[in-house]
Design goal:
By secondary structure, the chain is an alpha/beta fold. It has helices at residues 15-30, 33-38, 68-77, 95-99, 143-148, 153-168, 179-200, and strands at 39-43, 49-53, 58-62, 81-85, 105-109, 129-133. It is built from 7 helices and 6 strands, in the order H-H-E-E-E-H-E-H-E-E-H-H-H. InterPro entries: Methyltransferase_TRM13, SAM-dependent_MTases_sf, Trm13.
Length: 201
Amino acid sequence: MWIKREVDRKLPFQEKHVKQQASIIGNLEDFGVIKSSLIKEQCDDDGLCVDKIDSRPAVVEFGAGRGYLTQMLADCYGIERVFLVERKSYKLKADRSLRQKESLILERLRIDIEDLNLKAVDSLQGVPYLAIGKHLCGPATDKKFIVDLGITKEEFHAITWFTSWAVDADHGSDLSVDGRLHLQSMEQEQYEGMQMGLKTL
């Protein structure tokens, strides 16, 4: 219904974001995460079993922004409890639309992920939940996992530079440039950035 734009016309619609969200949810389903986290098989006295949403499971979205990934998940699976974690305030949030669902409980936690302790959120105690996130970085990065893979600090910075380059830059002028020049340029940028950081200290 999202891809066909059969949703509230007041919601902002950007096709690329809808495709990303649908892909994330599709992958969660393909990997069995949704079924294992939110859906339980319930059987009646006759032995007829069906999949049903578990009693009031929750979705916790880290770096939720406006919350449209969770909105899509709630629309598709009837989620009834939502926690949106985001440190900044946004306009045009999904909150208004989510609050219109009578059975849905919504809490927006305005906090940096670095400072969040889910065990301290009273309304999550004893509640099964699925934690998701579309855009996570900084404190949400699993530094131990990356180190265990053998990726050095320098390589990690190179990875972040390349991912930013792949997403944000205009590459038309880059096609004829040798890859070594990109690395040299990147190293120079990192060096200058470190020098600026030292000056501000």
